[in-house]
């Protein structure tokens, strides 16, 4: 099968993965309206290309938190990569290192933070963090990633409770016995008969999280803090006031609150209120280099892909994730050139026209 675009990898993964695994990765909350709108929203945006700009040379490089990456696409935190490929997150980390971009490792990884760091020792990595009722769990893993050279904490704030993912309930989704949430291996032995929710005891997540917990994180770690899960200008302003270093505009891939907005539709108001005081990133619905161009034009410093990385793993492990990233890189470079942009700094809102469709 000739893999030309990301939808080719999606089709392969749908056929290759078990139904339960496919349903887990594809799941949105409730009717999946927000999941689907993440994709459809890009089709409502048109580009206004400039011509005769000499695009014989163009440069896709950018920076995140002062570190140069090859183009403004990274890997979002997604769980359980070993369900898609036996090497799991190790393959993802190596592919991201090879393409010189940013990998956000998930708390719910099926490889430990130590194993991921060892697999790609020169890779640029952030760590995605949840806060638990037992804060010691969170603090212990923060200490581990600090020692391993992870460069930021990505605090996911949109999961006080897990969204209702109907197919996971129908399928009675559980990790197979040979896989574990490796970052917590051995930590729940005293709860040997616990009711499992995505690999850890149910009710481990803390629904009482609030802005005071951002202050708590700042009090125990010097790592930059990026808030993931902001969709409104009001919360973006609060994030800036609380001294975070970045915001990821995210609706959790449409897996939490159904009926919320597509992330690309939230981006402008958040960029406008932040006014450059912190970096703004986004995830959700990125499937082409055109999508990347539109997001960057609307003010995203970098975008992150979730499900497409899983499709790449399912296709061919590390090589598959490399191919996914390379396709997006090449499409982004072409879209830049066809729009008259020679480097990322030339991409701005003048490129954007919103369709009335």
TrEMBL record:
Catalyzed reactions: a (2S)-2-hydroxycarboxylate + O2 = a 2-oxocarboxylate + H2O2; 2-hydroxyoctanoate + O2 = 2-oxooctanoate + H2O2
InterPro entries hit by this protein: Aldolase_TIM, Alpha-hydoxy_acid_DH_FMN, FMN-dep_DH, FMN_HAD, FMN_hydac_DH_AS
Enzyme class: oxidoreductase
One GO location term (cellular component): peroxisomal matrix
EC number per UniProt: 1.1.3.15
Pfam families noted in UniProt: FMN_dh
GO molecular function, one term: (S)-2-hydroxy-acid oxidase activity
GO biological process: fatty acid alpha-oxidation
Family listed: Belongs to the FMN-dependent alpha-hydroxy acid dehydrogenase family.
Protein name, per record: (S)-2-hydroxy-acid oxidase
Lineage of source species: Eukaryota, Metazoa, Chordata, Craniata, Vertebrata
């Amino acid at each position: 099968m000739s893999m030309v675009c990301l939808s080719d990898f999606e089709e392969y993964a749908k056929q290759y993965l078990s139904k339960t695994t496919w349903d887990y990765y594809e799941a949105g909350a409730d009717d999946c309206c927000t999941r689907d709108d993440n994709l459809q929203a890009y089709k409502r945006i048109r580009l206004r290309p400039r011509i005769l700009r000499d695009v014989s040379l163009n440069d896709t490089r950018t920076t995140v938190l002062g570190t140069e990456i090859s183009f403004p696409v990274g890997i979002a935190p997604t769980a359980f990569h070993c369900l898609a490929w036996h090497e799991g997150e190790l393959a993802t980390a190596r592919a991201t290192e090879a393409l010189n971009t940013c990998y956000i490792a998930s708390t719910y990884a099926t490889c430990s933070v130590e194993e991921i760091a060892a697999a790609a020792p020169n890779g640029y990595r952030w760590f995605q963090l949840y806060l638990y009722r037992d804060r010691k769990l969170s603090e212990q893993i923060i200490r581990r990633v600090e020692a391993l050279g992870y460069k930021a904490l990505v605090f996911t704030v949109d999961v006080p409770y897990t969204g209702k993912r109907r197919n996971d309930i129908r399928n009675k989704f559980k990790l197979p016995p040979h896989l574990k949430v490796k970052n917590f291996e051995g930590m729940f032995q005293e709860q040997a008969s616990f009711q499992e929710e995505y690999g850890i005891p149910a009710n481990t997540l803390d629904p009482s999280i609030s802005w005071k917990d951002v202050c708590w994180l700042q009090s125990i770690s010097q790592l930059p803090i990026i808030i993931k899960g902001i969709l409104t200008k009001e919360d973006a302003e609060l994030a800036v006031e609380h001294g975070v270093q970045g915001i990821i505009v995210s609706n959790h891939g449409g897996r939490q609150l159904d009926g919320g907005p597509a992330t690309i539709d939230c981006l402008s108001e958040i960029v406008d209120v932040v006014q450059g005081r912190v970096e703004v990133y986004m995830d959700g619905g990125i499937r082409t280099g055109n999508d990347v161009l539109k997001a960057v034009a609307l003010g995203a410093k970098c975008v992150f892909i979730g499900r497409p990385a899983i499709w790449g793993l399912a296709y061919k492990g590390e090589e598959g994730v490399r191919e996914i990233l390379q396709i997006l890189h090449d499409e982004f470079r072409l879209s830049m050139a066809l729009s008259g942009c020679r480097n990322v700094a030339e991409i701005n809102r003048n490129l954007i026209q919103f369709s009335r469709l």
